[in-house]
Amino acid sequence: MDMESEFLLNWYERQLLVKGIDDRLQLKLSEETFGRISGELEELVAELLIRSGLSGITKEFPRQEILPFYSPLIYRQEETVIFEDGPLLEIVVDKEKKRISFPHSLPVTYAPIIAGRIFSWFMDGKYEKAFNMKLPAGLDRIGRPGKVMVVGAGGLGAPLIKLLLDRGLKDITIVEPGEIKLNNLHRQILYDYGDVGYPKATILERKLSRMYPSARVKIYKEHFAEGLLRSEKPDLVVSCVDNYGTRYEINDSSYRSGIPYVDSAVEGFSGYVIFRRRDLACYRCFMGDDRKDTTAPKGILPFTSYFGAMLQAAVTIDFLNRRRSIEKVFWFDLRNDMYEEIDVGKRESCEVCN
Amino acid sequence: MEVVYGQKRWSFDRAMPLEKLVEETGLRREAVLVMADGRLIREGETIPVGSKVLIISAANGG
Q1: If we measure between CA atoms, which residue out of A260, A263, A243 comes closest to residue A323?
Q2: SUPFAM superfamilies from the xrefs (chain B) (predicted)?
Q3: Which positions in chain A have a beta carbon within 8 angstroms of at least one beta carbon in chain B?
Q4: How far, in Å, CA of A339 to CA of A49, rounded?
């Protein structure tokens, strides 16, 4: 294997753990190239696919700012993927080019769904054409002041932080003790190749103050603890962590403090988003009390974690703007195109919420 | 009952406790959650025969 291929496979290490994705597919994807595209929806679909390994662009590609974030990108002369408007998702192969149409009237929250279907087509040629799913909330501008604490700035947290600040959040506290690794970069959109090895907190402090000078951004380079809720007093906590243990801690602390929280978790092509407050069943009632963390890395795709983050952002904004919240768990599977709302009642024996 | 887990499908013609269903599908209890007709099923509960069952990963990634 040449050095370029080896570098590429290290970069995508985490998505190569997903069933059905192997070195051959990953190297095949890297031969695809995006050129001139237009509009927010097209651009986000392209970015999510580029981050999933379709890593060629021409000089006409409009999101050149993705470059510093994305070392596997390769400049090429000719595009191989062309986006068009159409009533359904359709993928037609015309010589070397893939002509992909989808409804451009869809809200931008559908971008990860479209990217997931196109990626699935590259895997096995199958994809769903219609868009009949109903998402729990839309991505509005933030119209009311509020303070949000984000715990974890990785695959969920990095896009969530950017989505909230882009939509006008002015007061955010971030809790993140970790360091940046090479295999984080394909989905953790606030970090680039030069940041590998540095604490996420240090990089976020530098970048966010430059990108959002009018926002108050406070960053803790430490693990979550209940004391942070007492000192920061956020209106809402968003859990973007990668283990059961911290989710239990956030759940228990938030219920004790009476602070509502949003949680999401993702794996492979699927994940969920939940909103919890004192009168609703807690995370323990949903997941059980006895889930154990292992050290084994989990397979994850950029459009899946982006979708989880986007849903968290939508639910957060809905709460800040209207004090409205979803009561059911929203679960999705982008590979099998399944979207479900799940009723979770309080457990009689739950020591946290009942 | 019709049972879905990702791209896998099973069909059973009897009611079943959650634990038995997970055993029959060959999945690991600690890795999944079970829903029947849109509602979370807990340990000790029996799933009625005509239910539409969805098994999902107990995801914890972020």
Answers
A1: A260
A2: MoaD/ThiS (SSF54285)
A3: 152, 154-157, 240-244, 247, 264-268, 270-272, 286-288, 290-293, 298, 300, 305, 329, 331, 333, 335-336, 338, 340-345, 347
A4: 21
Cβ pair A336:B6 closer than 8 A: yes
Task: Give the model confidence (pLDDT) of A172-182 as tens digits.
Answer: 999 999 999 99
pLDDT interval class at A6 (50, 70, 90): confident
Contacts of A270 in chain B (CB under 8 A): 6, 56-57, 59
Burial of A195 (0-12, 13-18, 19+ CB in 10 A): buried
Mean pLDDT of A133-144: 93
What are chain B's domains?
A: 2-57 (3.10.20.30)
Listed as own residue / partner, the contacts of A220-223 with beta carbons closer than 8 Å and 24 or more positions apart are A220/A173, A220/A174, A220/A175, A220/A176, A221/A176, A221/A177, A222/A175, A222/A177, A223/A175, A223/A177
| Averaged confidence pLDDT in chain A | 94
A180: amino acid identity, one letter: I
Q: How high is the ipTM of this complex?
A: 0.95
The count of CB pairs under 8 A between chains A and B is 80
Q: Do B62 and A266 touch (CB under 8 A)?
A: yes
Q: Which domains does chain A have, with CATH numbers?
A: 3-124 (no CATH), 147-342 (3.40.50.720)
Kindly state the DSSP code that residue A222 receives in the 8-state scheme.
S
Checking if the pLDDT of A94 tops 70, the result is yes
CA distance A159 to A53: 18
Cβ–Cβ < 8 Å for B58, A331: no
